[in-house]
Amino acid sequence: MIAAAAFYLFAAVLIASAVMVVTSRNPVHSVLFLILAFFNAAALFLLAGAEFLAMILVIVYVGAVAVLFLFVVMMLDVDFSALREGFQRYAPVGGAVGLVLFAELVFVFGSWSFADDVGGLRLNPTPEGVDNTRAIGRILYTDHVWLFQLSGLILLVAMIGAIVLTLRGRPASKRQDIGAQVARSGSVNLRQVRPGAGLGEIGIERPPVEAPKPVKQVEHHGHDHGGHH
Amino acid sequence: MNWTLALPEIVLGISGLLILAGGVIPKKDSFFPVSMAVIGALVLTAALVLGQGEGTAFMGQYVSDGFSRFAKVLILAGAALALVLALDFNAKAGLDRFEYAVLMLFAAQGMMVMVSANDLMSLYIGLELLSLSLYVIAAFDRDNARSAEAGLKYFVLGALASGLLLYGSSLVYGFAGTTNFDRLADALSSGQVGMGLVIGLVFVLAGLCFKISAVPFHMWTPDVYEGAPTPVTAFFATAPKIAAIALLMRVLAGPFGDLSAQWQQVIWFASAGSMLLGAFAALTQKNIKRLMAYSSIGHVGYALMGLAVATDGGFRGVLVYMAIYLVMNLGTFAVLVAMRRNGKTLEQVDDLAGLGRTDPQMALWMAIFMFSMAGVPPMAGFFGKLYVFLAAVQEGFWVLALIGVFTSVVGSYYYLRIIKVMYFDAAQAPLDPRSAGVTVVMAGTGLLTLLFFLFPAPIIAAAQSAIVALAG
């Protein structure tokens, strides 16, 4: 009874927030409604006994994907009204395509039938006596650990590839190269300085530079400057 | 859970991760030490493969038998030698980033998973691990437009092929109810199967034919081979071909062995088409890397002839052919990698003019490889062709065998033309001195190609025991 009431509550909120995702004018509101929809879907999963999927939905979709969406929407200045332009014009075509797809789905499901022993023929039937987190863990990390680890390697290769093909060291950036500094000779030397001696007393040692260019007449410049006043 | 059976793959994967970390941490460029470490890891893995036991592991997703050992040793040798060829070339071409070696290691890992696949899922995962690494190293010379184009083209077409393969796999799974090769073989043992499964099989074949660049799916090969840096092309033309052919053999001889009447026609067509296209399209090529691309298409056609026969003799012919193909192709690409004058890489056939006078040693090896590719008798290439033709004739595949003989004759024109250019054309300025590693690869593979006829027994016997494992 309570479960049924909860189901209808969560389902209603889910559908309402999904509608709001599509219809709300402000894209930030859309993303926030999307997060609400995810939470309600997670609650529905909980009601169905799939607690692992519920947690994953919250952690992955709300925690990572939706927040990323939010950042993208707020950072990028996307003109959503321009994207909606021409809705009237393309609505009939889109509607027709949707209708065809819907009709195909109806045909498929109309003639769909399962074999009598389909439950026993499934590759991974739901195991008895374990909760589904453990069951999923068993499939991923025990039965298919070979494929799981290799998929990890594929993702690693994709990451290496992205870095290799795009990352460039910036030649303009200045970095401290300690080896070069230590190996430098001639232009730098060590000398004893009396404590408390200022630069004015001991002088600054610099590599010899060519004579500075004659400074333009400062007085003249100052005079001009004064003239403006 | 018999995971120790997969020790070679596990060791290779973990050493790949360690080498990657070892290459990232130091600030300095570490191409050479990382490459050496990768070669060491490949050799270590090959040693482990030689001592590997037999059986299945990981819920039947992984199988180790004589066939997988034979293919893995060839693959690891090919990958290690291709990396040796890259050492000097990459340093001179400014491609000496350590990720190159690491990606080759992961490509080798993917190939090993492929030849050990006993399930459509591990087949796909291995294939994808290989392909992804290959896409990246094809575009490794990222500032060169042709290399970037090669990588992108290979990526887009490879993704399409993966899609075909997955679609076929899903159909097979849907109609047979399992993805495991052993159970598929049980399910199909009656020979009576639905149309859906045959369609799935054809899609799987299409995806795999793309990877070996057999004829209706060969279009990417010349562009990718030409655009990619030469050591990358050397790698593409050798180890991945062997892995994909081995995978094709395992799929066709294992789970779909009872459907041979269905797939023989497909392979027959791919074989004949590849031989014809490889022979005729190469005739007018001026760029030697494009020429080698068409040549590799032709060679795949000869190998598929043995597969089309679908007998143990034919399968054995394929394995011997691929082993010889690996050796002579690596040698040829060692010569191509050494083609460099005043620091610039050369890719035209005419750039070899007069090599017989300016560099007689390299010209001699190149002549041996070209004679072998053409199938002139004492060389190894002749025996490779002999075994597949013999199997085809014994089983009455006369048309295919005649096409093979005909295309061999046509093909010898462009192989012999290279020899003519080297020995009879006016000499050009000598090439830059080549590195010791390239010379070693050239001489080693050259000696194997030249002297194969003295000791063919070990390779034939190894191929025979591999086939026994595959069929039994």
From TrEMBL, chain A:
Q: What is this protein called?
A: NADH-quinone oxidoreductase subunit J
Q: Name one GO molecular function term.
A: quinone binding
Q: Where is this region: Disordered?
A: 199-229
Q: Its domain of life?
A: Bacteria
What InterPro entries is this protein classified in?
NADH_UbQ/plastoQ_OxRdtase_su6, Nuo/plastoQ_OxRdtase_6_NuoJ
Catalytic activity annotated for this protein? a quinone + NADH + 5 H(+)(in) = a quinol + NAD(+) + 4 H(+)(out)
Q: Which residues form a coiled coil?
A: none
Q: Which family does it belong to?
A: Belongs to the complex I subunit 6 family.
GO cellular-component term (any): plasma membrane
The entry's keywords: Cell membrane, Membrane, NAD, Oxidoreductase, Quinone, Transmembrane, Transmembrane helix
Question: What Enzyme Commission number(s) apply to this enzyme?
Answer: 7.1.1.-
Any transmembrane segments, and where?
Answer: 6-24, 31-50, 56-78, 90-115, 146-167
- Composition bias of kind Basic and acidic residues appears in 216-229
What does the record give as the function of this protein? Answer: NDH-1 shuttles electrons from NADH, via FMN and iron-sulfur (Fe-S) centers, to quinones in the respiratory chain. Couples the redox reaction to proton translocation (for every two electrons transferred, four hydrogen ions are translocated across the cytoplasmic membrane), and thus conserves the redox energy in a proton gradient.
Localization, per the record, is: Cell membrane
Give the membrane topology.
Multi-pass membrane protein
From TrEMBL, chain B:
State the membrane topology. Multi-pass membrane protein
**Localization annotation:** Cell membrane; Endomembrane system; Membrane
**GO cellular component entries:** endomembrane system; plasma membrane
NAD as UniProt keyword: yes
Q: Which reaction does it catalyse?
A: a quinone + NADH + 5 H(+)(in) = a quinol + NAD(+) + 4 H(+)(out)
What does the UniProt record say this protein does? NDH-1 shuttles electrons from NADH, via FMN and iron-sulfur (Fe-S) centers, to quinones in the respiratory chain. The immediate electron acceptor for the enzyme in this species is believed to be ubiquinone. Couples the redox reaction to proton translocation (for every two electrons transferred, four hydrogen ions are translocated across the cytoplasmic membrane), and thus conserves the redox energy in a proton gradient.
Chief localization: membrane
Q: Which family does it belong to?
A: Belongs to the complex I subunit 2 family.
Subunit structure, interactors included: NDH-1 is composed of 14 different subunits. Subunits NuoA, H, J, K, L, M, N constitute the membrane sector of the complex.
Transmembrane stretches, start-end: 6-24, 31-50, 70-91, 123-140, 152-176, 196-220, 232-253, 265-284, 291-311, 317-338, 363-384, 396-416, 436-455
Source species, domain of life: Bacteria
Alphabetically, the GO molecular function entries are: NADH dehydrogenase (quinone) (non-electrogenic) activity; NADH dehydrogenase (ubiquinone) activity; quinone binding
Tell me one GO biological process term: ATP synthesis coupled electron transport
Q: What is its EC number?
A: 7.1.1.-
Task: State the protein's name.
Answer: NADH-quinone oxidoreductase subunit N
